[in-house]
User: Fold Transmembrane protein 88 from Xenopus tropicalis.
Amino acid sequence: MSDQDIEDFEADSMSDTSRMIPGLPPYNMEDQLLPMESRSRWGCWMWTLLVTGANFVAFLANFIILFFIFTIVLTPTIVVVYFGFQCHSRVLHSDASYCKTLLDDNSSSALIILGFVMMSPLIVLAMAVYCGLARRLRLFMCFQPYTRALYKGVRWRWYEEGGICGCAREWNNHVKAWV
Assistant:
């Protein structure tokens, strides 16, 4: 084969994908997969306790916000079911004046049924409110990986986002993904 035939053969056999970079470059020079330095045994234990404490505080904050949202949204259901059970003769049969004058057993049963029927859409609404708030405040970014405790030089997640849990910074407009 002549040199011209070899060049034509190589040009024909190469596809568009063979000209691509074999591996994707790192997003950042600090994100390279270099071997990180391990912590000492006591340092690892201390950082593990610190990371566990930070994750527990993040869990408590999420749980308290979730509890308040569900309590506020489900208050109508709680009230309706409470009055239904309070005034029914086979459950509590209260001596309150509204139970004697306004609510009999049939209306108490209707309140109980209405309360449980209202509960499903209100639970969905409460979960949507919580998820929207958690996404807006980036509450799940408060949780830290345990590699922070094992290796030196791993940054806190909120440090890279511009504040505690990323609340201090606007939404990131730059997408760092390879497509």
